[in-house]
């Protein structure tokens, strides 16, 4: 079996390591790589060979970077999918980064936007995402603090041992607890022995041998049979187990777990969870109720971190693809791009604003310099021509001097401090012979996206009309939808928000014609073509890919269109969506990234140029750079759009057409301020589905956010 191994190195590897806990992290020259090493290699290869193999196969994600975390600051780590954000978190949490003292505790909270992962999986947790999701609802919401969880696990193990009729159970329990601690001590000793050299290295290797010996003894005690344990030892270990349990209980009380649990109960109750549902396993919840549970974690976390930031000196580093979440919580942003770490004061919006200003500044400077160079090169050519023709040495010397200036002195015109560049101060050292070239920052958003326009309708009229629609799962039960009225015309922009489980997906299936109403009438335009992106489109694609390992994007689309388009036309459809070249013809679907699968799903939806697009949670699996690309593409679509989403940014940009400093859409975005004349005055409306009714949000997504924030605010305790 093959798994990935993380290799982390830094400049402090041997000479700047401190064993004491530190409230700040300052690691220079950080390099992180991943390598695929089989378990057989780990067992059979020697340490030296294992290292050389790992280095040979390793793929560097971060190279010679500076990791700097200040005390009490909440950082948002951003970057495109696949750049190494999660690997960095795992390396830190697993104490693999040499420059971070092992005793330092770092709160690393990782939020993903996929329903297939835990929203708060911390890399050093003993329980993986699948185990976490097997927990009851209440435990799932509370499962973000691994230190607290470890204390609870130890306490539970010891407590249950005293409930047993077997007098040896407390002995086995305390030995299991000690063995786990011994394993951690061995890991630390191995790390120290690897990092230290000289006299300190000799001492570290002695401590490693001692730790290995202790682990062997611990394992022997753990496997010791009842007959070989002395009665006196049983009494001593039983007493130790009782004392350890009392100590853990004191720690548990100090963590105020009861208050945290009460907060979680209040939030879940506010989201519609009955008391009986709190002990139901998370995995047995329906899709809608799972999303409510995950929403509870996110909302609670957002408010909790804001309070934590104000009331403590805890340093937090987190990854989130929710733009509003990062803006609300983070004080500084760390940007991982081109294998380096860059830092920006303020939240994500502040970083994007500063980035655009820097891009404009350096762009103008480069343009001015290019004009100057072009003029100087023309002068050089003229002087050389005249000098050779007239044998004028002055002209030739002037041409040579100007050419040297072009080669050595045409670059950055400002010093590192922002002042004017001076040769004798800013260009010193034998290795520096010319100024650095002006580099204009490049956007991280990647390829833009474009959707084909809807075909023209032969006669006017509403695309879809719902009149008094009622829907019940059970004819005797309460209606999920109760008297819904909705009309959609060409060009309309409609957003549908609300807690999952309230009936949004049911309404979408009715609009798509996949379900019939219990009562009421649904009418559609006779010429309308519909494009429906279902909530679980990506999961279905992944399953299809694993069932047919050789299936590619081109192959799948060929089946979908049933010969209506040739390969060139299919490539022409995929390319504007950001899928082209070998990716669509040679890479199997099961190897595509989440973002690529979303693009492929959109291609399957829009290939026949639909008049109405229904998008149910289209931004799941995407980083916010891709979300902005989709938002811009949707803004330019000439048909009607109905968006079902928890993504507040998507609703504000696509449905409300808002473009301001808080939104990072591109230059081609068409909002309310620059709509084409033929669609000016298009209908834009945000609905919240509640108690089976569509409620218009006069202030759009902001109104829904505020109502949700007020509810959560009442659930959280007042800081202090």
Structure characterization notes:
By secondary structure, this protein is of the alpha/beta class. Among the domains are: 1-106, no CATH class; 349-426; 463-528 and 614-633 and 642-720, P-loop containing nucleotide triphosphate hydrolases (Rossmann fold, 3-Layer(aba) Sandwich); 537-610, no CATH class. The chain has 24 helices and 17 strands. The strands form 4 sheets. A 6-stranded mixed beta sheet has the order 13-14-15-11-16-17, with helices on both faces. A 5-stranded mixed beta sheet has the order 5-6-4-7-8. α7 packs antiparallel against α8, α10 (257-270) packs across α11 (287-311) and α17 (537-547) packs across α21. The longest helix has 43 residues, at 348-390. The chain is flat. Residues 114-134 are annotated as: Disordered. Keywords: ATP-binding, Coiled coil, Hydrolase, Nucleotide-binding, Repeat. GO terms for molecular function: ATP binding; ATP hydrolysis activity. Residues 205-251 form a coiled coil.
Helix count from the secondary structure assignment: 24
Which sheet architecture does the biggest sheet show?
6 strands, mixed
Report the portion of residues in β strands: 15-25%
CATH topology of the domain at 463-528 and 614-633 and 642-720: Rossmann fold
Number of DSSP strand runs: 17
Helix content: 40-55%
Instruction: Give the CATH class of the domain at 463-528 and 614-633 and 642-720.
Output: Alpha Beta
> Which class best fits the helix and strand makeup?
alpha/beta
Keywords: ATP-binding, Coiled coil, Hydrolase, Nucleotide-binding, Repeat
Domain ABC transporter: 464-688
Coiled coil: 205-251
GO molecular function, one term: ATP hydrolysis activity
